[in-house]
């Protein structure tokens, strides 16, 4: 396998902090991979947004990101409020895959065993009002589902 597409999905959030006086937020996510930025739509008046957002990147041994950075914001008429962040080392994106009986092996995005995982949001400073989690899913995007051994070998090559 040379270059291959890899999908990153920010599916939803739960139990997020209320950033507005209404007791809700208008949350959206910003995902940074290498020098690129991907932004979800904002969802009005909720603490449990469903973004169902995904994008594909091309990965190879010479073009693999070091990490995936996710930041949540509350959209306001004049600006935005910080709602939390997380940083996932690219090598570890499959570590929490609850559907993987092999213990975190890389998988095709559409493999039924490849299940999304919850990640807790972190503060930048003690004064930040941050709580909740986001659900994410990762995987290779191909027309075929390869064997776990093939994906593991390729994953090792691109994340060295």
From TrEMBL:
Gene3D superfamilies reported for this sequence: C2 domain
Residue ranges constituting the C2 domain according to the UniProt record: 1-103
SMART domains the UniProt entry points to: C2
Any one Pfam family match given in the protein's UniProt record, by short name: C2
Keyword Calcium applies: yes
InterPro entries given in the database record: C2_dom (IPR000008), C2_domain_sf (IPR035892)
Recorded GO CC terms: membrane
Keyword field contains Magnesium: no
Keywords assigned by UniProt, alphabetized: Calcium, Metal-binding
Source taxon at top rank: Eukaryota
Molecular function as annotated in GO: calcium ion binding
Name the record gives this protein: C2 domain-containing protein
Origin species: Umbelopsis ramanniana AG
Lineage per the UniProt record: Eukaryota, Fungi, Fungi incertae sedis, Mucoromycota, Mucoromycotina
């Amino acid at each position: 396998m040379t270059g291959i597409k890899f999908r990153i999905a920010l599916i939803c959030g739960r139990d997020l902090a209320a950033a507005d006086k209404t007791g809700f937020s208008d949350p959206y996510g910003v995902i940074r991979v290498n020098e690129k930025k991907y932004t979800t739509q904002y969802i009005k008046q909720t603490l449990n947004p469903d973004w169902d957002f995904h994008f594909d990147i091309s990965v190879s041994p010479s073009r693999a990101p070091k990490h995936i950075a996710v930041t949540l914001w509350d959209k306001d008429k004049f600006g935005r409020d910080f709602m939390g962040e997380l940083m996932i080392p690219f090598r570890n994106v499959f570590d929490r895959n609850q559907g993987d009986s092999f213990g975190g092996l890389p998988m095709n995005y559409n493999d039924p065993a490849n299940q999304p995982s919850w990640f807790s949001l972190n503060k930048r400073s003690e004064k930040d009002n941050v709580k909740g989690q986001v659900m994410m899913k990762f995987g290779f995007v191909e027309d075929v589902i390869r064997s776990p051994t093939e994906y593991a070998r390729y994953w090792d090559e691109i994340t060295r």
